[in-house]
Write a structure and sequence with these properties.
Blueprint (H helix, E strand, L loop, with lengths): L4 E11 L11 E11 L13 H19 L9 E8 L5 H4 L3 H12 L8 E5 L5 E8 L10 E6 L8 E9 L24
Parallel strand pairs: 3-4
Antiparallel strand pairs: 1-2, 2-7, 3-5, 3-7, 5-6
Helix pairs in contact: 1-3
Length: 193
């Protein structure tokens, strides 16, 4: 089964402060959304897992484009997340197809990326927003990096489409000060602490 891509959209934001003192180096967060035809829209298909293999090249391509969009240096990426917004003729399980192709593509490209990639999926109408969770790429309990970014593409997904999203960030929340494990304290290298 081939992947019918209608469009790829990227967004990048630089954050100098969030109400506190200006950061010495702005936080850069970026996202990429790939809008594709949903080959399972409008019907129940018992065997959808095979489509994940078809999505793997798209996951790598989107990961490469996203790294380039946020500056091109994989060494600066500290956090990530992923998600899927499925058009209303699909089902939530179709969004789960993105877990392996999206998550493993980012982890492969970033090298040491030990933490599970946080994820969300939902059904939505064209223009709906989806909040993509973000956390540290090497230890999911680094509290300063718990965050989310809202992604919206005005004309997607159409009822028979899916929008697969990847997110990367160069740091945690600006002015994080609520304690917990710090990035500099990662010691177990088990993806958690």
């Amino acid at each position: 089964m081939s992947v019918d891509v209608r469009k790829i959209v990227t967004g990048v934001e630089d954050i100098w402060h969030d109400g506190g003192p200006p950061l010495a180096d702005p936080l850069r967060r970026g996202w990429i959304a790939c809008v594709i035809a949903n080959p399972f829209a409008g019907r129940y298909e018992p065997d959808i897992e095979r489509f994940m293999d078809d999505l793997k090249p798209m996951g790598l391509e989107c990961s490469r484009r996203l790294v380039a969009a946020i500056g091109g240096d994989v060494g600066r990426v500290e956090a990530y997340g992923k998600g899927a917004l499925v058009g209303v003729d699909g089902e939530i399980e179709h969004g789960a197809l993105w877990h392996v192709p999206g998550g493993y593509a980012m982890r492969e490209l970033l090298g040491q990326a030990l933490a599970i990639v946080p994820s969300t999926a939902k059904l939505g109408a064209m223009g709906a927003g989806i909040d993509i969770p973000i956390h540290h790429k090497d230890a999911c309990y680094v509290r300063s990096h718990f965050d989310a970014i809202t992604v919206t593409v005005a004309d997607a997904p159409r009822p028979d489409e899916m929008m697969f999203v990847l997110v990367m960030a160069t740091g945690g929340r600006p002015h994080a000060r609520v304690g917990g494990l710090q990035a500099s304290e990662i010691s177990k290298w088990d993806g958690q602490r």
